[in-house]
Amino acid sequence: MVFSSNIFLLYFMPIFFLVYFILPRKGRNYFLLLASLVFYAWGAPEFIIHLIVSVIANFYLVRWMNKTEKPGLKKLLCGISIAISIGLLFYFKYGNFTMQNINSVLGWFHAEPLQWTKILLPIGISFFSFQSVTYTLDTYRKVNEPMKRLSDYMLYIVMFPQLIAGPIVRYCDIADQIRNRESLYTDRLHGFYRFIIGLCKKVLIADVIGFQVDQILGPSNYDVLTSAQLADIANKIATIDSTSAWIAIFAFTFQIYFDFAGYSDMAIGLGRMMGFKFPENFDNPYVSTTISEFWRRWHQTFSVFIKNYLYFPLGGSRVKTEARKYFNLWFCFLISGLWHGAAWNFVVYGALQGIFICADKLFLKKFNERLGRIPSVFFTFLIIVLTRCFFRIERIDLSWMFIKRLFAFDFAPFHFSDNPHLYVTMLVAAFFSFFTLSKLGLKVQDKVYFTDYNRRQHIIAFVICIFAFIFCLGALNASGFSPFIYFRF
Amino acid sequence: MKKPRIRYDCVLFALLMVFLFVPIVQEWTSIFPKKLLKGAFEPTPKPELTFDNYRSNTYQTQIEKYVSEHFGLREPVIRIYNQYLWSAYHKTYCHFIMPGKKGYLYYTVAVNEHYGTELPKFYSSNDKAMADADKELRMMNKLRYVLKDYGIEFVAFIAPDKSEVYPEYLPRRDADTSTIHLADYYSRRMTETGFPFINMTEWFVSMRDTASVPLFPKTDSHWRYSAIYGYDSLFRFINSLDGEAKFPTLHIGPPVAYESDKLEGDEETLNLIFPIRGGRTKYKSEITVEDDSLHRKPKVLFVGDSFIWSMGEFMPARQIMTDWEIWFYNNTATIASSNKTESVKDIDRLSHILNADYVVFYSAGHQWREATYGFTKDALLQLCVSDSLFEASVEDHTKRLRNYEGYANMTEEEVRNSITWMLKNDPELIPGLDGEGIPAIRNTKRIKEALTISHIRNDKDWVNALNFYAVQHTISPDDALREEARRISAGESPLREEIVIDTAAYIQMKKQEIIKGWRNNPDKLREMQQKASDNNQPLDTVFERNARWIINQQIEDGNLFQ
Q: ipTM of this predicted complex?
């Protein structure tokens, strides 16, 4: 189920919150768990059993791991637990990709290809697998005690606000809240406001821009396309004029941010309505002055995960040689790229990010500092935009062809009147993306997101959000229905 | 005592919960009267929840779609967003309407056609498009000469495109100047081949600056008031041909402007809250029909697009024509005399064609790619090719093509079906219809029968008697007509002589037929059940009363037997 779907907005959410708040406190977690399973089962009926079985297995493995005093067994159980989570992720997400590549290699040697039935990707597997890993490792490292009840652990993994597209909530961040949390009326209202902000980002900005991006670049998921459709996309890209190409890639850069940040806002908002304090996932990433800063601001919970559970175990920056340090950094970003999708374009995307991060450490950061804040923000933004080509266009040859078209200087005249809705929405997106470059912007952001409101402010926010909700409902149903981009990852 | 303080956050939260439930409550109870959005769409049926549907995600996808079409307050919510899009950007999600400058509305396809971007979607080159047009026109000319044998004139008119008449308000688009415009091509070729037609686009363009009223409304892509001039010209043009029946002379009074809140068709489909500015002024004229006792008023079969519908609104059609039919896109037939709309494929097409004095094909310029919506091919087959000849042609082609690569993996039946389809789409493959010349072959037996049917149709008492017979024997009125024609052709005594109309029995039978139809129609059945529950009456009583009401209406209108 998608937050921006009619089923969720008109039925699931009202009924869930009504029952949730009517129930006595001790019943709420059970109801939330039940609702979360329904939520997942609605969208992924084939995988709900996999999810439940893997969660149960992991719970008992970790409990056993925690109880045992034998360090060897402890390590083994930790390994098995992680292997289950990562193994499932690998099997479902990278199985097709791996077999495809093996068969390509076999093809070079004129060998028979291996038989393989294509498997479907369970939604959200990249997110809940990582949460399982944090649970296992945080318990192993004694950061937190394991959950006493299976239902609590299950709730941590499958809680519907963050089940399918994050934020990736580390076990240590939420362990206490699962059993003890308070949901004040103001929290419920603030949660609702945050949810509506996210809904607006998704429906009024990302979807509007995304529709046009798809018009220019074709659908984003090439797996479902026929060869004729792919040929059509290739033809479009080969003949695109530079103006349209730049508009498309800028538009996609805004689309992906507002889509994903919108989802995160909705998840954080829903959590807050129930009294959970989920970690923030975005901190104005497009005002970053360097690529390193960008990754500290973009999909923060993922970056924290990679840092704590991959970069540090690799040795982080405390390694013997500089070369190893840079390799660790680059490797982490390579894996990050691959996490986004099982395709070579994502590998290239990750590798490029890694190269820019290393370049940051070597010279780019200093260069940006000399440029000054505003120019370096736009320089960094330009790098982000260009690397997004490999993210959006799921074939490396086409991505490269697209980049060539960007720099072909074959500019067609720009006419605002051709699509004012798109251009105005892009301007709005740009405004909010760079809003916090100013102190005033930061102040406003803090006020809107992180400060408690007084009575008057609550009433104003409430009325605005009610209207925004109606407006988004209209937008959703007038223009059709679109799922979130990050569901695929 | 201290007054307890009302917690505003608690109140706001309670209000929020109430608000979240408003759509559900509205959907279940319809507290506010439900209004539908305008515009045609294929409604999603309520999906059935089965394990297989659920597992394959079909149920979830369909229910989401179903909910988006039925949720409470859908209509106002969508109108709010549409109004925002329109007011801020002049944008609409209605895909077949393209807003132009200053709020002018155009047909999307017509705009594409104007800029030369429509044809390349269907043809890889102009030559191919022109070859298809030539072929169609060749068949139109063949049909024209065949129809002439039965005293029927086949004419055409190219209805004007708003995009050509008022191009200054078109939205900006990149034009493909290398693409031809098929309406222009047809116009040129019809002139060259002598096919009778009028190109109203050219005429409207020439008079747009001098006309006293706008030739197209701002908010519709169809002609409205100016259709009067179009139809009048068509009638005059037809009268100039050698047909026996003539249209009477019309005297069109000066246009009178008036304000109306009724939205034009295209504006309606935008589903806005507020009407578009400048779209309220409408025009009408008094039209008097000059009596012409020298000539019979014609029967006309119109085949084409929506440009004929203004006839009913602006013209005294019943005073101008004896009878007329509109075959909308050659798909649905609206028959004036019986006030019925049926699927074209369900009627006896040949008898309907032969019943007319004039067959008029018309279409707006941008739609001439699809001329004549399959009518010409079908009419040629009906008029010229007997069943036996068609079968023989299928047989012959099957023998010749059976071993071709494309048919290799097909069963015998699939090959035959494929060839049948091919011959229906290209009748010139049938011997006798091929080549450039006028076809000499005729479907004589069927034509004779059709002419008899046509003759019967013009006798109201005869038709009534046959309708009574049809209801009595639970067959369709067309079957009764065909049986009568068969009897006459075979020299048997006509059914008419055996039928004694018992009106009371007819009413009873008709009532049962209506009720049976309702029972088999889930929507109607639901509506009746709702009525029964609202009025606290048994369902049978509601059926009975409603059927009786319809019959009473028919008696009042004098068409009980139709």
A: 0.86
